[in-house]
Specification:
With 173 residues, this protein is mainly alpha-helical. The chain has one domain. It has four helices and two strands. Strands 1-2 form a two-stranded antiparallel sheet. The longest helix has 34 residues.
């Protein structure tokens, strides 16, 4: 079943975010749970901080693009209830992603090293830093669950023959 594609910029932003969020989630939880040597943890943290900090301006661009360029029409098989669930799920993903990104920046207790470019530490107040660290932890857990739900929904729709994944893939000639 064929459905209208998302635009190239929307697809590009989606897959950039998908790759970075999946990398940061998997490497972050693996680092926390598997307790690799400190040198490995340090490298993973450096890469995660660098990549996710780069997502902050892209997140603003993504939100602007969402407002200025609405998504194509929903697939015909979706009922109004399903459309509402899709919108609520995407809104939850964006809000949680924004919270994780912002809290990740605000929890930094040192300058932010983005692949060698140092950004000054945003907050100096230890109480505030600890608050954002805790918020970051919970928003990352929620984001991981929402991403898992998003992936599961795509798989279920694919198995039902709805072909929604094709809307986010490059157009076939």
């Amino acid at each position: 079943m064929s459905h209208p594609h998302y635009s190239k910029p929307r697809r590009l932003l989606h897959w950039i975010f998908a790759a970075v969020v999946l990398w940061a989630t998997i490497s972050g939880y693996a680092s926390a749970l598997l307790q690799p040597p400190p040198s490995v943890k340090q490298v993973l943290a450096f890469i995660n901080v660098s990549l996710t900090t780069l997502l902050v301006p892209l997140f603003a661009l993504r939100l602007l693009y969402l407002v200025l360029h609405p998504a194509p029409a929903a697939p015909a098989h979706q009922s109004p209830r399903e459309r509402l669930l899709v919108h609520a799920g995407h809104a939850a993903l964006l809000i949680t992603l924004g919270t994780a990104l912002l809290s990740g920046v605000l929890m930094m207790s040192r300058p932010i090293d983005v692949f060698g470019l140092l950004i000054p530490q945003p907050l100096q107040n230890l109480t505030a830093i600890l608050f954002f660290e805790e918020l970051h932890h919970y928003s990352c857990v929620a984001l991981a669950l929402l991403v898992a739900g998003h992936i599961a929904a795509v798989i279920i729709h694919q198995l039902r023959g709805h072909g929604v994944l094709g809307r986010m893939l490059p157009k076939q000639p």
